[in-house]
Specification:
alpha/beta; globular; 6-stranded mixed sheet; two-stranded antiparallel ribbon
Length: 213
């Protein structure tokens, strides 16, 4: 599955590598990769692979799940489609509580003690998905873990997830996509080491200026 999803994401440029002309993240970090998994929703074949992959992953790792909860906003559609495939209820968690009406932060019915899987599109440092997990736990949910499309596998993210006792299973990962990208000519083979150097330490920009390791 990791290779199939990696090929899908590369084909539609949901994950796009540009090591010679890095993108700048909101944090200011220079990155050789741009990730927009929203593009999977507009390609029917890729969308089918992703949603069936999420359903398969959830069935395998979280067989006791009772409710899917998407992250806002990128995880909402994936939680809805996967919930439909699995015949499960779904909802989503807002990034902040509404300032009107019932002022909900969790949208959809969630009962205390229900077993929840969080559906996320990508994980980098883990901050946003852990906020969602905390909100759900405070509401009384038993969060079984996270199912995501793509993970960078950054050390900071791995450490934060472990510290919060949160399990994650992704359809594909940074290392797989970098390898497939080189094999299929999206990037040069020698760029793989540069990409892995970025993944290992995003704040170190030595990989940019010929810093191939």
């Amino acid at each position: 599955m990791k290779e199939r999803i990696a090929k899908d994401l590369l084909k539609i440029k949901a994950v796009f590598f540009r090591p010679e002309e890095p993108f700048t993240w909101a944090s200011g970090i220079k990155s050789p990769v741009y990730c927009d998994n929203r593009l999977t929703l507009t390609d029917v074949a890729v969308r089918n692979d992703v949603e069936n992959g999420l359903a398969e992953t959830i069935r395998e790792y979280y067989p006791d799940v009772e409710v899917l909860m998407g992250t806002s906003t990128a995880g909402i559609a994936h939680a809805a489609i996967t919930g439909h495939l699995m015949n499960l209820p779904m909802g989503y968690v807002r990034s902040g509580a509404k300032d009107h009406g019932r002022k909900n932060q969790i949208e959809g019915k969630l009962l205390p003690g229900q077993k929840v899987v969080v559906v996320e599109d990508l994980i980098s440092t883990g901050g946003s998905v852990l906020e969602v997990v905390e909100i759900l736990r405070e509401a009384g949910a038993e969060v079984l873990g996270v199912a995501s499309i793509f993970t960078y596998g950054m050390q900071k993210g791995l450490e934060r997830m472990a510290a919060a006792n949160v399990e994650n299973h992704s359809l594909t990962d940074f290392d797989t996509i970098a390898r497939i990208a080189a094999e299929e000519g999206y990037i040069q083979p020698e760029d793989v080491a540069r990409l892995i150097a970025f993944r290992n330490n995003p704040s170190d920009e030595s990989w940019i200026h010929g810093g191939k390791v």
